[in-house]
Amino acid sequence: MSPNTSVSPPNASGQAILVAVGWPYANNHLHAGHLAGAYLPADIFARYQRMRGNRVLMVSGSDSHGTPVTVRAEQEGTTPEDVFQRYHQSFLDTFKGFGISFDLFTSTDTANHIEVTQQLFLQMLEQGDLYEADQELLFDSIAGRFLPDRYVEGICPKCSFDGARGDQCDNCGSTLDALDLINPRSKLSDATPERRKSRHFFLRLTAFTERLMKWIEQPEHRDWRPHVRNFTLGMLREGLIDRSITRDITWGVPIPLEGYESKRIYVWFEAVIGYLSATKEWAATSGNPDGWKAWWTDPAARTVYFIGKDNVPFHTVIWPAMLMSAGGLNLPSDVPANQYVTMSGSKASKSRGGVVWLPDYLERYDPDPFRYALTASMPETNDTDFTWADYVRRNNDELVARWGNLVNRVLTITRRNFDGRVPRAPSTLSPESQALLDRVDGAFDTVGGDYDRVQMRRALAGAIEVAGAANQYLDARAPWQAVKTDRDHAAETLYVAINAISGLITILNPVLPFTTQKAWEYLGHEGKVGIAGWRRTPVLAGTVLPEPGPLYRKLDDSVVAEEEARLGL
RNA sequence: GGCAGGAUAGCUCAGCGGUAGAGCAGCGGACUCAUAAGCCGUUGGUCGCGGGUUCAAAUCCCGCUCCUGCUACCA
């Protein structure tokens, strides 16, 4: 990927960029890990690319199928549809609340998705990339369900540890086959599972090893994140395994063939197709049914997948293999998978607590400070730890004090001393004034390049540093004094500071969409931030400045203890 | 077991071949426009351990210790 580092005006015919975001599983609310891992970086990336004038399409949807949804429905005495609908709505509310700017957030429970999935299924079957075979599986006769390996526990055949899961032993770390467990028991009902044969469809992954290897080794994939690239190469070197892509369940996408009424296509095969089906849905809805091709069949398009690291194999091996089988569709340009965020040192876990639920957060705080704090410690190269102490510090020291206060102090002095209007600067600026504006303009290149490479931490650090430079500039020129002795000097300072802020607003907008929009209006600008593209929008002398308000609230230290208690660790 | 990432100032982390850096915390100072914010200065580290390569290593190589995570038949 060549980083876009040059500043260009908005351009309706920019590059087509598909921002594909992992599909959340509709069996619980979203938490901070989801946001930091996938939705926030995707949103920052999309907002930046839109301002660059690129044709961005950002899609995702609820993954409505799969065993845990049905399990949860049974526990609650309701239907899978009900569970899925409830959380789907929760997701929509959460994205709205945090400003995650999807062009479409749909679900796998649509007629369109089912149709696209079945069509691809049949196409791959015809290609010979799917085949039928019998599979021996464990069946829980009390729950009346075949058991995924993870739902079986027993004694590890290798180390005799009692409590090994069907897929892996937590004690000795070896990968297991559920059929080899000694004294197996179902995690659903505690029943002793019985062996049953079942006929299923398999994805012939083994046939794709060579092609995938070639694809990964293309020069443009060299700068994929090391953990993504190496993990994928490792899988390919070890040898792929054909996997069954159907299950004995009734909640899911039906198999479009006679005699398979009691089986469904399984989620890991079907959910990734959502990227394609969602694009088609968006195109159809916007009145141009062929519009999806701009992102999927035009080789000039860029498709970037934002997911958590646990999802890497599906996006760098399985989905590309499926796309190769289908033919004529773009393979992922990049999969900048993130690592994990831990909460106060504890891994987010639904059972053990230690989770910041996003709907919960929004009841008490504003979205931008969370976006800011999570971006500042985004798990791009390693797991990171979120603490409320860090959140409060970043809010108070960086958002309130450094950035918010910069805007506030500049606007206040100006309004008070220049009749509420932006003062006029001399035609030739002093060197330090010019230097500040140059610094802001330069940040469009450096920070923009970081956004483009999906290095959000670096981007944000670079942006906030410029706010620091603006504060230094102000202190050096002390317009609050100059206004009494040399009005022209003060006028230049404030004019320059206001214009520097204007640039900073645009630069920070991908991370802080809500508060930068507010600030944008405080400068007398109209419309949306960045409407003029990825560049500093000048604020002209004489512009009437409306009364500003605080962009951020200072938080009391007691928030830390309160929220830590709420984490229940 | 395999793979990845980490181990650098009290804390969070950046640097990734060329005289140890930032923010916060601590200490001192000048200022007062601002949500008592901002600015300047300063204390503080034998860069996990042991070898090696090099004129030069936090930075490259080998070995070791500890931490985190991933490991497609859960999403």
Strand-helix topology:
Elements: E1 16-21, H1 32-51, E2 55-62, H2 67-76, H3 80-98, E3 104-107, H4 111-127, E4 130-140, E5 145-146, E6 152-155, E7 162-165, E8 182-186, E9 194-203, H5 209-216, H6 226-238, E10 243-244, E11 246-247, E12 253-254, E13 264-265, H7 267-270, H8 274-285, H9 293-296, E14 302-306, H10 312-326, E15 341-343, E16 346-347, H11 358-364, H12 367-376, E17 384-386, H13 388-417, H14 431-452, H15 456-477, H16 479-485, H17 487-508, H18 513-522, H19 558-567
Parallel strand pairs: 1-2, 1-14, 2-3, 15-17
Antiparallel strand pairs: 4-5, 4-9, 6-7, 6-8, 9-10, 11-13, 12-13, 15-16
This protein binds one RNA strand of 75 nucleotides through α2, α6, β10, α10 and α13.
Word description of this protein:
The chain is of the alpha/beta class and 569 residues long. The protein folds into three domains: 16-119 and 264-362, HUPs (Rossmann fold), CATH 3.40.50.620; 133-208 and 228-254, Methionyl-trna Synthetase, domain 2; 390-532, Isoleucyl-tRNA Synthetase, Domain 1, CATH 1.10.730.10. It contains 19 helices and 17 strands. The protein has helices at residues 32-51, 67-76, 80-98, 111-127, 209-216, 226-238, 267-270, 274-285, 293-296, 312-326, 358-364, 367-376, 388-417, 431-452, 456-477, 479-485, 487-508, 513-522, 558-567, and strands at 16-21, 55-62, 104-107, 130-140, 145-146, 152-155, 162-165, 182-186, 194-203, 243-244, 246-247, 253-254, 264-265, 302-306, 341-343, 346-347, 384-386. A hairpin with a 2-residue loop joins β15 and β16 (346-347). α12 packs across α13, α13 packs parallel to α15 (456-477) and α17 (487-508) packs antiparallel against α18 (513-522). It is elongated and about 90 Å long. The model is unreliable at 1-11 and 348-352 (pLDDT under 50). The chain binds one RNA strand of 75 nucleotides through α2, α6, β10, α10 and α13.
